[in-house]
């Protein structure tokens, strides 16, 4: 009876979150540097679905469909992937300080990104322009996977993967990548440095259907697959040996979660730059609000991450219009005070975080 | 129920936010009427392009510019589309301009692609930072904004400046060594090496480029400075200001071991004028030449032109 009630509450919460996300997405389409009214948006969307509606402005239509919509889709995917990966890794490590970057993903990607930005122009002579635009995301993605793989290899013992060593190895790899980045930056010119600074603060504005068409699967598929791990994560919350007694294949789950998170976050970072904070804080906020059940927290973190990033993007591109702020600044500015407030009130109420 | 409240509050906030967005610009339907070429509304991205547009007499048609558009100063009171990597497509589209002029390295390639998809006419210029390129761009812009006659006159003025420059340089008896230092505070000093605007301009001014083995921008080290041993050191106005003036510049390590430091021969000029290779490049070179060739003052060449 109790389980059934939980299920209904969970679906109610998830349902409301989805409703909020849809609401946010629509508002995000509506606001921007260029004013497009709700009526026009509906017309443009209907027009493109083949309905015969009133004439739509070609310019508004282009802005909506080839600038705003792709970045909205990318934002939802990236926010979702960061949120769910954060939740899964925190669950796996049973450590609330973990965020996707801690296993080396972000800095591995950043290192390869800065290499491409600094040395790419000399490579560009050998590549077609089409390949050049792909070079950065592909390099960043391989960098993130490589860094995680190295950290993971250190933590792999004879019988089991030691998550503490994985975190420490991740920290070490992150520091090493930072040092190597320093060397590359030393050789960079101002243009490359500026591009890298912006990249490292995150940016969704480069989204185009071409890029998304391919990369979205690398972000969404692993993220969705992570949802399926919630039962095992709940069991592992009791401790690894207890989970083993419950029949959970602990090692397999560890591999799977690390691989899936690295894929989802790596692809996200490759497409949108390093957007911090979401993977760390969204799961926390949801856990404080709704309790630690991974069946709820994993999908809720995905939706929560998507909402947060969509709202942040909306602010980033309107607050200083006609130009834009890097999105990472907004996520941190919005989320940190809220997070600290939640921590403070949780302490007052003596809630276990 | 508590949760539902949380959601309705957030939803309400979001709705409120959506109403607070920037004012709904009443969009002019550019599709229906061909815009009058005389009154084209221009967004100009890149300091040199903006300077050219203004020199052609169309400054009042510029409705927005980027942060590098500093000449004339009035451009900086216009809405700014941002600075290089920060320039985004939707912001530019929202200005409701008729055309966008942009310098290639002042705007990301993907932003150009996005702008093209909105059917907003955008002209991207590759500026090679030499006089030939300047003349070409002036002519092209003249054609685009329907100021062809003015463009011809502007090119003629530039050519006249260059002739005066040539005749001045032919009178010089020395070829001082000059180094350009890009400064953004004492912690961020770079030597401007070969393949940069500085090499071209310093040679135009009848000076000798003080570094032979340094390409592009490299961090300034005291040893490199001493090894270059320039007679003059040139800064942007803003660069020298960022250091705290000539006195502060003389404190740079290694500076006093150079002729420039010893004789306090530190120069500073407007950044865009110096590096932009705009319509005033000839005059900029003349100004630089007169400040490093004392013999020219005696001949009074500058005044005779």
Automatic annotation (TrEMBL), chain A:
<feature type="transmembrane region" description="Helical">
    <location>
        <begin position="325"/>
        <end position="344"/>
    </location>
</feature>
<feature type="transmembrane region" description="Helical">
    <location>
        <begin position="105"/>
        <end position="127"/>
    </location>
</feature>
<feature type="transmembrane region" description="Helical">
    <location>
        <begin position="134"/>
        <end position="152"/>
    </location>
</feature>
<keyword id="KW-1133">Transmembrane helix</keyword>
<comment type="similarity">
    <text>Belongs to the binding-protein-dependent transport system permease family. FecCD subfamily.</text>
</comment>
<protein>
    <submittedName>
        <fullName>Iron chelate uptake ABC transporter family permease subunit</fullName>
    </submittedName>
</protein>
<keyword id="KW-1003">Cell membrane</keyword>
<dbReference type="InterPro" id="IPR037294">
    <property type="entry name" value="ABC_BtuC-like"/>
</dbReference>
<feature type="transmembrane region" description="Helical">
    <location>
        <begin position="296"/>
        <end position="319"/>
    </location>
</feature>
<feature type="transmembrane region" description="Helical">
    <location>
        <begin position="208"/>
        <end position="228"/>
    </location>
</feature>
<dbReference type="InterPro" id="IPR000522">
    <property type="entry name" value="ABC_transptr_permease_BtuC"/>
</dbReference>
<feature type="transmembrane region" description="Helical">
    <location>
        <begin position="257"/>
        <end position="284"/>
    </location>
</feature>
<dbReference type="Pfam" id="PF01032">
    <property type="entry name" value="FecCD"/>
</dbReference>
<keyword id="KW-0812">Transmembrane</keyword>
<feature type="transmembrane region" description="Helical">
    <location>
        <begin position="7"/>
        <end position="27"/>
    </location>
</feature>
<keyword id="KW-0472">Membrane</keyword>
<keyword id="KW-0813">Transport</keyword>
<feature type="transmembrane region" description="Helical">
    <location>
        <begin position="164"/>
        <end position="187"/>
    </location>
</feature>
<feature type="transmembrane region" description="Helical">
    <location>
        <begin position="72"/>
        <end position="93"/>
    </location>
</feature>
From TrEMBL, chain B:
<protein>
    <submittedName>
        <fullName>ABC transporter substrate-binding protein</fullName>
    </submittedName>
</protein>
<dbReference type="InterPro" id="IPR050902">
    <property type="entry name" value="ABC_Transporter_SBP"/>
</dbReference>
<dbReference type="InterPro" id="IPR002491">
    <property type="entry name" value="ABC_transptr_periplasmic_BD"/>
</dbReference>
<feature type="domain" description="Fe/B12 periplasmic-binding">
    <location>
        <begin position="41"/>
        <end position="300"/>
    </location>
</feature>
<feature type="signal peptide">
    <location>
        <begin position="1"/>
        <end position="23"/>
    </location>
</feature>
<keyword id="KW-0732">Signal</keyword>
<dbReference type="Pfam" id="PF01497">
    <property type="entry name" value="Peripla_BP_2"/>
</dbReference>
């Amino acid at each position: 009876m109790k389980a059934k009630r939980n299920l209904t509450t969970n679906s109610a919460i998830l349902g409301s979150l989805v409703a909020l996300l849809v609401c946010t997405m629509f508002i995000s389409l509506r606001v921007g540097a260029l004013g497009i009214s709700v009526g026009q948006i509906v017309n443009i969307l209907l027009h493109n679905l083949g309905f015969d509606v009133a004439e739509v402005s070609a310019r508004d239509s282009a802005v909506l469909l080839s600038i705003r919509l792709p970045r909205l889709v990318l934002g939802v995917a990236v926010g979702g992937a960061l949120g769910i990966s954060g939740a899964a890794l925190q669950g796996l490590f049973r450590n609330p300080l973990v965020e996707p970057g801690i296993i080396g993903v972000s800095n591995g990607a950043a290192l390869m990104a800065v290499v491409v930005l600094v040395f790419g122009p000399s490579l560009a002579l050998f590549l077609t322009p089409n390949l050049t635009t792909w070079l950065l995301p592909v390099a960043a993605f391989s960098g993130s996977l490589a860094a995680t793989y190295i950290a993971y290899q250190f933590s792999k013992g004879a019988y089991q993967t030691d998550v503490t060593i994985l975190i420490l190895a991740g920290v070490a790899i992150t520091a090493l990548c930072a040092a190597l980045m320093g060397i590359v930056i030393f050789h960079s010119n101002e243009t490359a440095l500026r591009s890298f600074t912006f990249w490292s603060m995150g940016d969704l504005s480069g989204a185009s259907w071409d890029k998304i068409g391919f990369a979205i699967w690398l972000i969404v598929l692993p993220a969705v697959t992570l949802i399926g791990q919630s039962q095992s994560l709940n069991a592992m919350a009791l401790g690894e040996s207890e989970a083993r007694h419950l029949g959970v294949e602990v090692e397999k789950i560890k591999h799977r979660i690390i691989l899936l998170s690295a894929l989802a976050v790596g692809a996200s970072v490759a497409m949108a730059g390093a957007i911090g904070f979401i993977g760390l804080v969204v799961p926390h906020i949801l856990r404080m609000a709704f309790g630690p059940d991974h069946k709820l927290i994993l999908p809720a973190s995905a939706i929560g991450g998507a909402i947060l990033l969509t709202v942040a993007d909306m602010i980033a591109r309107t607050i200083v219009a006609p130009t834009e702020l890097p999105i990472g600044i907004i996520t941190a500015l919005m989320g940190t005070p809220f997070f600290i407030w939640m921590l403070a009130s949780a302490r007052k109420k003596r809630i276990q975080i | 129920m508590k949760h539902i409240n949380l959601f309705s509050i957030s939803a309400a906030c979001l709705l409120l936010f959506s109403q607070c967005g920037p004012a709904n610009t009443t969009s002019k339907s550019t599709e229906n009427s061909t815009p009058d070429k005389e009154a084209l509304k221009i967004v100009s991205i890149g300091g040199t392009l903006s300077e050219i547009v203004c020199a052609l007499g169309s400054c009042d048609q510029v409705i927005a510019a980027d942060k590098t558009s500093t000449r004339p100063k009035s451009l900086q009171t216009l809405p700014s589309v941002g600075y290089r990597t920060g320039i985004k497509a939707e912001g530019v589209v929202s200005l409701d301009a008729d055309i966008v002029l942009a310098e290639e390295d002042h705007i990301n390639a993907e932003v150009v692609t996005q702008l093209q998809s909105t059917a907003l006419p955008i002209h991207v210029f590759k500026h090679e930072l030499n006089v030939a390129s300047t003349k070409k761009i002036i002519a092209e812009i003249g054609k685009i904004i329907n100021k062809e006659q003015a463009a011809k006159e502007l090119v003629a003025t530039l050519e006249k400046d260059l002739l005066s420059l040539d005749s001045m340089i032919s009178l010089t008896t020395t070829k001082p060594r000059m180094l350009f230092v890009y400064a953004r505070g004492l912690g961020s000093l770079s030597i401007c090496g070969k393949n940069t605007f500085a090499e071209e301009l310093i040679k135009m001014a009848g000076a000798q480029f003080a570094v032979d083995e340094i390409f592009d921008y490299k961090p300034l080290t005291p040893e490199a400075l001493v090894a270059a041993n320039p007679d003059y050191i040139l800064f942007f106005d803003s660069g020298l200001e960022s250091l705290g003036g000539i006195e502060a510049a003389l404190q740079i390590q290694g500076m006093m071991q150079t002729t420039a430091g010893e004789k306090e021969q530190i120069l500073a000029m407007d950044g865009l004028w110096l590096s932009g290779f705009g319509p005033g490049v000839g005059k900029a070179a003349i100004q630089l030449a007169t400040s490093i060739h004392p013999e020219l003052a005696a001949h009074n060449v500058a005044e005779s032109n």
